[in-house]
Amino acid sequence: MGQSRRKQIKQIRQPAGPNKAFGKALRQVRKSRNISQETLALEGDFDRTYISLMERGLRSPTIRTVVRLAEVLDVRPSEIVQEMEVLLPKWKRT
């Protein structure tokens, strides 16, 4: 892999934080429901790449998006947010 290719890859990695934590939480909830990114996108009227970008922490959803995701996943929006809080270092309990 060339030096310029490695530099490009590093530029798209999201550091730990709320976007990354939300993405991990969304992925965990989605997988626990056995729903693919494609199905979530189709049923929620999203683009599949948008789901992928959120799960990787590269896009931050609006509150309307969180509500719509929760509807498709058949969970309360707060369940996704609570899972996100567990993943955020600030709220982790030791």
Number of strands: 0
What average pLDDT do the residues reach?
Answer: 87
What is the C-level CATH assignment?
Answer: Mainly Alpha
Helical fraction: 55-70%
Report the radius of gyration as a whole number of Å.
14 Å
Major pleated sheet:
none
Order of helices and strands: HHHHHH
CATH architecture classification: Orthogonal Bundle
Low-confidence stretches: none
CATH homology superfamily name: lambda repressor-like DNA-binding domains
What does this structure look like?
The protein is an all-alpha fold and 94 residues long. The chain has six helices and no strands. The chain has a single domain, classed as 434 Repressor (Amino-terminal Domain) (Orthogonal Bundle). Helices cover 66% and strands 0% of the residues. The mean pLDDT is 87.
Q: SSE layout and pairings?
A:
Blueprint: H1 3-11, H2 18-32, H3 37-44, H4 48-55, H5 63-73, H6 77-87
Keyphrases for this structure?
mainly alpha, 434 Repressor (Amino-terminal Domain), 6 helices, single chain, 94 residues
Short description:
The chain has 94 residues and is mainly α.
